[in-house]
Amino acid sequence: MISKKACWSLLAALLLAVIPQAASSKDRLDTLVLNRIFNYRASIDSTIEGYRTQAYLKFRVKTNRRNATLLCVPHLYTIARSNQKSHLGESYLTLTFHESEPTESEVHARTSTIHRHRTVIPDVYGYLTPHIYQTTLLSDHLYSPFHIRNKRYYKYTVKQVFGTNANVEFRPRVKNTQAVRGSAIVDIETGRIIRCTLLGEFDMVAFEINITMGTEGLSSLLPTSCTLKTKFSFLGNQLRGIYEARYGDMPLTENTLVEGIQARELIDSLRPMPLTSVEKDIYAEYDSLRRSSITDTTSVREKNFVKDFLWDVIGDNLLNRIKGRFDNDRGYYRISPIINPLYLSYSHRKGLTYRLTARAGYVFNENSDLYVRTKIGYSFKLNHTYFDIPITYTFDDRNNGKMMLSWRNDELQASSTVLDQLKKKHGNTFDWDTLALDYFKHSRLVFTLQYDLNPHVGLKTGILFNRWRSVDKEDFKALGKPTFYKSTALCEELTLRPLGWRGPIVTIDYERTLNGVTKDNMDYERWEFDCSYLKHLQCLRSLSLRAGFGFYTTGTKDTYFLDFNNFREDNIPGGWNDEWSGDFELLHRNWYNSSHYYVRANATYESPLLLLSWIPLIGTITENERIYVSALHLSQIKYYIELGYGFTNRLLSMGIFTGYEEFKHFSIGLRFDFRLFDRW
């Protein structure tokens, strides 16, 4: 007879033998399923590049809470003013999918209960066509948990197995706005995702996406249906939305855009699923309000003026972006809000700056277009207005053939050479410290023509007109000196791309005044050499490198102005993601025009998960982080080093910088740009 103690010992031995085996078996199953998911895209020979399909989209948005601040949110201006709390919209369109670019859409019919048949937060429509097998679910954000490069950001668990399918759950290792959580039903034999649920929060929108994928071949890489639930909260406002999409071969009866009541009648014949009773009630309420406004003839003149002009025209255009298309979508225009505090930026040197941008373009054909961009900025610290207007006509896009006219006006520029010449001539006759002879308002007009001989070599030639006006004209008149200076020069540029457009870019610039040809009293020659390289790394990381030098070889005996192309102050900041220029944040503006030569180097490393992302709460809203290293050598400053760290979240981009001048003088400064709703 076996004792009780012996029985317990035998049971313990059996458990110790079985549990490790079960755990080991589960680990092998988890690894097997994950590897097949990661390798599934490679098993499909077809490419989605250029794949076209019809789509039916429907959205329903309900305003739970709202106040006056909702007027300033892009695309929600009409929602803030509407008498309805719930809105409904439908559209029928053709989608063109790309491997690494955003999905293109061609809208055939569109209707909604929102004024002018607008949509709500149009950027969320990208969530209805996620690329789950690529590194990012959308074009430039949200790590996909189904790509092997992002495996290090997620923890995976196979929770349940039923037949040939498995339920895989995933969650971020570090809570960050670039990561999602959720689950997926997977075919164990192939690794094909049958359906999945993704939850996360990005750019102030909390979302839940339920996706059903195709069954085989190319269709298994794309969704057949998608349901998106969103929640937007901002300063006491709260909106909830449900977006639904169905994809597949549906009849196409119209090739031109149809809107309003006609679009609703057309969509009624194309709708792949019936409207719910709630959705029918929303349409009925909208139709009732619309009929009431038409039949009510009392105070028509006053109502139309207040509603159609003051609210719809002035209010909407002042607080929100102005954009539109014309001539069958061949032309477009976009203007940033005229009055919006979110377009303020701050830096240690420039103080607060308000900026306004406007873009317009027209496409003549696939190889030719016209593009105009206006940048206007006002510095409150300097009490100065700047603007830059480049106009570009592309006559041969395949070979980068362009004609460009650029006008940049009223830059504050210092010129010590003018003051030096006056001191040499007049000696100690005047108290130079009391005279404002350093600063000039500089404007320049440039006309250039460029063309690429091949993908590796490009040429540019043009003519440059410079004008300088003294800030304090009376002091110059008292000394018998002109208050206006000008120069005309020829400019040439050679561009070398040894590895093509994705490799480093080397430019050689040459500028020479037309001395003797024009009546200008300046004579100079300038050379500049520059090399820049933007390397896109895996998982939304990037490395930006820039190095270069420039120098003047000749100068007039009387006076001249130092003005480099690649070493200048950006007076109208456009945000770090707008144009990476390797700017020196703490360098005083006078140094840009004080040395006959410069040698500079800049490097920036960017990653969504760097330092702040690992801090609880703060890391959940951090989108990107950057480290800056810059170095400079001038005739007056032998060594200047600048270090910086910056981050970007839903509200702003902020950076702190430290500068070291010849390892003796230390300075520290801050820069931030508001970017709330910048993606909207």
Characterise the protein shown here.
This protein is an alpha+beta fold and 680 residues long. Helix content is 17%, strand content 45%. The chain contains eight helices and 29 strands. The chain has helices spanning 4-43, 77-81, 261-270, 277-295, 300-319, 416-426, 473-478, 618-621, and strands at residues 51-65, 86-97, 104-112, 154-162, 165-172, 181-187, 193-202, 205-213, 223-234, 237-248, 258-259, 322-326, 331-335, 344-347, 351-365, 368-379, 384-396, 401-414, 439-454, 457-470, 484-496, 505-513, 525-536, 542-554, 597-607, 622-634, 640-649, 652-661, 665-674. It has a 16-stranded antiparallel β-barrel with strand order 14-15-16-17-18-19-20-21-22-23-24-25-26-27-28-29. It has an eleven-stranded mixed beta sheet with strand order 4-5-6-7-8-9-10-1-2-3-11. A hairpin with an 8-residue loop joins strand 5 (165-172) and strand 6. The N and C termini lie far apart (79 Å). Mean pLDDT is 80; it is low at 7-23, 297-303, 426-435 and 572-581.
Topology:
Layout: H1 4-43, E1 51-65, H2 77-81, E2 86-97, E3 104-112, E4 154-162, E5 165-172, E6 181-187, E7 193-202, E8 205-213, E9 223-234, E10 237-248, E11 258-259, H3 261-270, H4 277-295, H5 300-319, E12 322-326, E13 331-335, E14 344-347, E15 351-365, E16 368-379, E17 384-396, E18 401-414, H6 416-426, E19 439-454, E20 457-470, H7 473-478, E21 484-496, E22 505-513, E23 525-536, E24 542-554, E25 597-607, H8 618-621, E26 622-634, E27 640-649, E28 652-661, E29 665-674
Parallel strand pairs: 3-11
Antiparallel strand pairs: 1-2, 1-10, 2-3, 4-5, 5-6, 6-7, 7-8, 8-9, 9-10, 12-13, 13-15, 14-15, 14-29, 15-16, 16-17, 17-18, 18-19, 19-20, 20-21, 21-22, 22-23, 23-24, 24-25, 25-26, 26-27, 27-28, 28-29
